[in-house]
Amino acid sequence: MLGAGGGAAFFLLKGGGPPAAHAEEGDHGKSKGGGHGGEPGEAVEGAHGVMITPGDGVVYVELPEMLVNIASGDGRPAFLKLKLTLEAADQEIVAALEPEIPRVTDQFNAFLRELRTDDLAGSAGAYRLRLELLRRVNLVIAPQHINAVLIEEMLVQ
To answer: What span, in angstroms and rounded, lies between the C-alpha atoms of 86 and 148?
Structure first.
């Protein structure tokens, strides 16, 4: 009896529990596409218009496209169009992130509207933008954290 209990504890603590338990853990109550689990590359629509795609050891959360007006050096209106994807380590982080998407978007908009076109010049501008957006999303979902903010598309016009 002790051996069976020890073996069960070993498998459960190691994460090797019965397959049915793992299917329920990855489900998180989503009915569309059977939850956030699935094969790498199989996208599932999440809350607030985000697309969730399991990758190889990570989960990608594709945010809706953002379009904000920013200041130009000469006073003319300029626009920034961004398509961002967040890289999370696992489904637990995605579950913490999803209900906070409106707050994340608000944080991003507040920051992006303060930018000038000069702030986005070159690869250094994109790198600083990526770091600041990462900092802001991690503040919203703390103590969880996102691994990276990936810029899929960035257009300054």
So the answer is: 6
